Amino acid sequence: MTAALEMAAIEGGYEPGLPILRGASLSVAPGEIVALLGPNGAGKSTLVKAAAGLVPVWSGRVMLGGRDITGLAAHRMVHEGLGFVPQTENVFANLSVLENLQLASALVARKRRLDLGRMFELFPDLDRQRKLEAGRLSGGQRQMLAVARALVASPSVLMLDEPSAGLSPKLVGVVFERLKAVRDTGVTILLVEQNVKAALAIADRAVVLVEGRERLEGPAAELVNDPRMAALYLGAAA
Amino acid sequence: MLQLVADGLVVGSVIALGAVGLTLTYSILRFANFGQGEFMTWGAYFAVSTLAFVLAVTGGGVMEPLGPFSFGWQLIVAMLLAAALTAILALVVDWLLFRRLRRGNAITLVIASFGAALALRNLVQFLYGTLPEYYSREIQIAIRLVPRDVMGGLRVTPDQMLVIGLTLVLMLALQWLLTRTTLGRAMRATAMNPALARVAGVDVEGVIRATWVIGAALAAIAGVFVGITLQIRPMLGFDLLLPLFAAAILGGIGSVRGAVVGGYIVGLAESLSVPLVGAEYRAATAFAVLIGILLLRPNGLFGARA
Question: What ipTM describes this predicted complex?
Fold first, then answer.
C-alpha cells in the first residue's frame, strides 16, 4: 500500500554545512496517527518543517500519497494536501477566528475547501468566538484554531509540531481527543511531541529520532514500556 | 483659521496616500523604504507623459477643463496609466534590488532604498529636466464656502475638494480590500507572520508584489494630486519624505488607519503652525507633534503594543 507520507533519507538544515537532519526516514500509512518523538535537539521539528517546505532539504525525498513533493514551496504543499500546524505563533493573531478560517479556505481550490460549518461543529468552542481576534484566545482555543485552520484545506496528511506545548494536562487531553476525532474523519496525522506519554496514548505507531536520524520505531502500545526509549532519551545508543 | 484647516486637509491627503504605501511596505517587507517619495515624483512625471500620450491619441492636443476643475478627463486617464506605470517601476526596483536582499537584515534593505531613491531622483531629472511642469495652465477661481467674517472665511478650489474627496474614497477602498478580500487578509496575515502565512497556503511573493503595486499606485496618485494643486518638480517626493515618515510613525508604523490619521495630523500641524512660527518652520512642527505623541504613546496612535 502507498504510504500517505514518506520521508526517505532526508538530509537538511538551516545553514549550509550544519546538518540537523542526517538521513532521517519515516513512513506514515493512510489513516494512522504516528508520533515523532525524541530528545531535545533531535531534529523532530526540523524534519516536519523540511517536509512542509520551510527548511531546505539537501538530499532525500518527501513523498505524499506517492507523489514527490520534495522542495516544493511551502504554500504549494497546502494545495498538494499536506497540512502543517507549527508549535508556536500558529494562528494569525491580528485576524478574527472566522477570518483565520476564511483565509485558509479561500486559498485552496474550491473542491478542496471544507465547509466552515463542519469545522465549527468539530470545534464548538471556536463557533462561540468566531468574531474574536485570534490573539485573544486561550492557549487551548488557539491550538484548536490552528488545527481547524489547517483542516479547512482538507489535507490528506496533517503534521503537528508539539500541539501540547504550553497547555495544562487537562487541555492536552482535550486537544488530543480532538485529534483522534480528526483522524476519524480520514486525515492521517504525524505528531511531533515532547509529551511522550500523551502522544503514545493516541498514536498507532511511534518513531524516535536522535541526532537527525530515526533510531527506534514500533507500535505505540509496545514502545510505552520499551526500555530502549528511556535509553535514547538519556543519550545512550539503542 | 478655517482656511488653514482646509489647506492642511489637502496637504494631509497627499501625505496620507504616501504614508499608507510606506506603512504597507514596512509591515509586509519589514523595512522602511526611503524610495517611497520617489514613487510620488515618478507618478507625477509619468502622468505628464501619459497625459501627452492621451491628448495625442485623442487627437485634440488640448485639454478642455471638466466642469469646475482645471483639468479634463484626459488627466484622469493619464493618472490611472501613471499609477500602473509607477506600480511596474516599483516591481522592477523590487526585482532588481530588494528581492535579492530580502534574506539579509532590514538595515541592508533600508540603505538599498536610499540608493534606489537617489538613482530614481536623478533619473527623473535627467529625463524631464529640473524646470517645474504643470498638467494644466488653466487658472482656477476658488469658491468661497464660508464668509470672511466667520473664522477668517474659507475659499477652496474644486481641484482641492476633489483631492480630499478622492483620498477618502481611496482610503475606504483600501480598508475594504484589507478587511473583506482574500488578498487583504493574506496581506494582514503575511504582515503578522510570514512563515505561518506560507504554510497556510499564502503565496508570500505574490503578496509582496501586490504590496508594491498598491503602495506605488497610491504614491503615484498622491504625486499627481501635488501636480494638480501645486506643481511638478523632481524634488516633489523627496520634500515630502520626512512628513511621510512622520505620519507613518505617528499613526503607528504598520497601521494603515494610523498612516491616514497621521497624514492628516501632520498636514494640519504644518498648516496651522504657519501663523505661529512662519512658513519656513512649518515642516518642523510635524516633528514637534510627532515627538509629543510618541512621548504619550511610544508605539504611535494605532501601533501594536510591543
Answer: 0.85
Closest-approach residue (CA) in chain A for B194: A92
**Domain extents in chain B:** 2-237
Q: Which of A54-58, A77-81, B109-113, B148-152 has the lowest mean pLDDT?
A: B148-152
Distance CA B128, CA B43 (A): 13
Enclosing domain of residue A69:
5-86+154-233
pLDDT of B305 reads: 52
Any chain A CB within 8 A of the CB of B210? no
Q: What is the pLDDT of residues B229-288, one digit of tens each?
A: 888 999 998 988 888 988 888 888 878 888 999 999 999 888 888 888 877 777 788 778
SS3 B144: strand
Q: What pLDDT does B304 receive?
A: 65
pLDDT tens-digit map of B160-180: 888 899 999 999 999 999 989
Residues of A in Cβ contact (< 8 Å) with B182: 102-103, 106-107
- Alpha-carbon distance of A129 to A134, in angstroms, equals 9
Between chain A and chain B, the number of residue pairs with CB atoms below 8 A apart is: 71
For residue A91, is it within any domain?
no
Show Cβ contacts of residue A188 under 8 Å, excluding neighbours closer than 6 positions: A4, A5, A28, A29, A30, A31, A32, A33, A156, A157, A158
- Number of structural domains (chain A) is 1
User: Out of A53, A93, A103, whose CB is closest to B200?
Assistant: A103
CA-nearest of B238, B222, B278, B285 to B79 is B222
At B101-122, the pLDDT tens digits run 887 788 889 999 999 999 999 9
- How far apart are the CA of A221 and the nearest CA of chain B, in angstroms? 32
Q: Which of A105-109, A179-183, B84-88, B148-152 has the highest mean pLDDT?
A: B84-88
B188 touches chain A (CB under 8 A): yes
Nearest residue in A to B304, CA atom:
A94
State the nearest Cα–Cα gap between A65 and chain B, in angstroms: 19
Average pLDDT, chain B: 87
| CATH number where A15 lies | 3.40.50.300
Q: For residue B238, what are the contacts with CB-CB under 8 A and spacing of at least 6?
A: B37, B38, B41, B117, B121
- pLDDT exceeds 80 at position B138: no
The reply to whether residue A52 touches residue B188, judged by beta carbons under 8 angstroms, is no
Residue A53's contacts (CB-CB under 8 Å, 6 or more residues apart) are A71, A72, A73, A74, A75, A76, A77, B198, B199
The three grid cell numbers given for residue A85, joined into one nine-digit string? 500546524
Give the sign of the dihedral formed by CA B214, CA B216, CA B222, CA B228: negative
d(CA B186, nearest CA chain A) in Å: 7
Nearest to A92 among B182, B189, B201 (CB): B189
